[in-house]
Amino acid sequence: MTLARRVEKVFAEDGPLARGWPRYERRDAQVALSIEIARTLEHGGVLLAEAPTGVGKSLAYLVPAALLSRESGGRVVVATCTRSLQDQLVERDLPALLEALGVSLPSARLKGKQNYLCTRSLELEDGPAPDEAELIESLRGWSLTETEGDLDRFECDDPEGFRRLRPRIATDPAACTALTCRRGRECFWTRARRRASEAQLLIVNHALLSLSGESDGLLPEFDALIVDEAHRLEGVLLSQLERSVSRQRFEDLFRLLGSARERRAGNARARGGLLARLRGYAAPLLARRESGEGVSGVLDRLVARITEARIDSGRLFDQLSLGPATGPYARRLRYQSTAELLGGELGALEATLKHCNEFARGLHHVAEAMGSMESSRGEEFSAELDQVSARWTALGSDLDELTQAGERDRVYWRSSGGRGLELHGTPLTAADHARRLVLSRARAAVLTSATLSAAGDFSFLAGRLGIGTEGGLPYEVAIAPSPFPLARQMRAYVYTGGGDEADAVSQVVAELARSGRNQLVLFTAHERLRRAREKLLDRLPPSRLLLAQEWDGPAGLLAERFRAARGAILLGVQSLWEGVDFPGESLEIVVVAKLPFSVPDEPLVEARAERMRERGEDPFMGDAVPDAVLRFRQGIGRLIRRADDRGVVVVCDVRLASASYRRAFVDALPVAAVPWRDAAELADDAARFLGREMGIEEGR
Fold it and tell me: Is the same domain home to 131 and 268?
């Protein structure tokens, strides 16, 4: 019996799901999608499968994945973008499915190395601030009973404090290796990888999948790959391939080594960091050995070098500065050569690179001496020294590459914002990496999301991921229809009343607020959100709850407050365009301030456009429009999440009604957008629709 036929029997009206899945309801679109996925998993190849909200794509791919891995013995890897969905699959969906099927299956989840607690780092961490002591003690108690060491599972009363502490007690992705750590049995990351190697169904995230292509052994070999939230894979790939250097990165390493700055009275960190601990413990022992004097001398030179290195790196970042910050948001400026970045003044750069090299060499030299002591304490010191040495080596390598800016297929820029001056470099495209090191590793690959196509055309996203006949990785497509009666559940409007963006949006939102419904207002830039927020504060009554991303808190916290409120208005950018779920009355109006085109002078966007023009292609129609359409679809997809939801979409961008390229955006709307020039009349019509829909439901 084929895998597709077995999947069909699982979904049958008298099948195991109908008998054992809580509140199971057969959905024809879900069954059809699952069968298509089963055919690809069984026969091989690549499938791009678009499934809108409500289809139930998680179950649609878990059923054939579980059947295939159990019956064939092959390993299936499922990759999600968000760790929250990863946890949902492992802790809820997969156990419920296996229980309904009445089978067992070795399964596991694996996250990136930095998501796991490092017990060695936790032992050494005293916290530079007294208010961290309680948090650190809580972590130590948690680590004694925790089996996975997954930092996402740690619950505390001070999430902001934990966010700051987390990088210091997490496993270091770059420096922590089997060669530099002697705590294999205690290492949570090592345990997680061991469980992953024994699993037939492995749940990972995009970040780990991306890194595994260039890191042998990071993931065990797998037969089939399923990528959920696949529209976000390219962005994750690029972020993993990006290299960056900041003043803070230097300061973190100075803090690890220790300096006079930390020797404050009454502070537990007065021991001075790694070098001070070495001088206190190792130097007296090594002094009795032949190499003792040499090691002590190296330690003295490294301690003395910290102040000089801090001064030289400070001079370098002052030289790179973009000037005083003009607001809370980062400025970005592209550069294409060392001369453009630094002119002819290379002294601070050369001195800083030399410091990186000397720290790396000196620490490695001391590590070798410590390793020769043939004691467990000496081995631990040796491992810690090699870890920090590797971090200095990586920092120097990144700084050298980013200041040279010599690779034609990469784009380089410097940014200045809340985190200070940073240098960045990233590939122009992730296509080669995605095709060669990620997708082609599996005999069968399924990429699924609610938004993979623009007007039914998958070629844009396929090209971004390097798949297609030209790349030697042809693909099939499948589109599942929405299970919702969207024509009855939605209304769409385009506001053509004119005025600048902030004024138009604030006027429309204020009028819509009279309905008392929750509104999500989506912007493409922080500055535009700020201006609209100021106008809304003047237009709305003080009793109206107005939440603005970053101004009133991070997106996750604001989303929780918004769900719990009624009549609230949430202003958001970027992360609130996708990945948030507001069912029912928690969201009934979505306002799109502007069609979500990328900013043309953003470094990556600008560099890609230049490359396309060199090939004789139109970067606007070939790149900017399809990219914006996919974002637009994600934004309006926040509205209808269930069969009994209803709501309205208002687009405050006249280009939706008049631009020559508007058809791609119009087709992305589930219903036709009606133009309105008067904001009050638009709001009245929207209120009548929402009230009428509510009345119908109440009368049933």
Answer: yes
CB 275 within 8 A of CB 268: no
Q: Measured between alpha carbons, how far is 532 from 543 in angstroms, rounded to an integer? A: 18
Segment 80-107 shows an average pLDDT of 90
What residue numbers bound the domain in which 292 lies?
Answer: 123-173+241-427
DSSP state for residue 674 in the 8-state scheme: E
The stretches of 172-331 forming alpha helices (DSSP H) are: 188-198, 206-212, 233-241, 247-257, 274-287, 292-320
Query: Do 680 and 651 have their domain in common?
Result: yes
Query: What element of type H or E holds 607?
Result: helix 603-614
**Residue 47: its H or E element:** strand 45-50
Q: Is 585 left (phi over 0), alpha (psi -120 to 50) or beta?
A: alpha
Strand 107-109 versus strand 519-523 pairing type:
unpaired
Identify the CA nearest to 585 among candidates 519, 541, 521: 519
**pTM for the structure as a whole:** 0.87
- pLDDT-based confidence at residue 261 (cuts at 50, 70, 90): very low
* Short-list 597, 601, 604, CA closest to 620: 597
How far are the Cα atoms of 8, 507, 541, 568 from residue 636, in angstroms, in the given order? 32, 20, 27, 18
426: three-class secondary structure by DSSP: strand
Per DSSP (E only), the strands in 581-661 are: 589-592, 647-651
pLDDT at 282: 65
Sheet holding 410-417, edge to edge: 243-246, 420-427, 410-417, 331-335
pLDDT in tens, 155-189: 887 777 888 788 888 887 665 665 556 565 678 88
Report the number of distinct structural domains present in the chain. 3
- Supply the DSSP symbol for 263: -
CA angle at residue 342 from 340 to 343, to 5 degrees? 70
Q: What b-and-e string marks burial along 622-633, b requiring 16 or more CB atoms within 10 Å of the CB? A: bbbbbbbbbbbb
Q: DSSP readout, 433-457?
A: HIIIIIGGGSSEEEEEES---BTTB
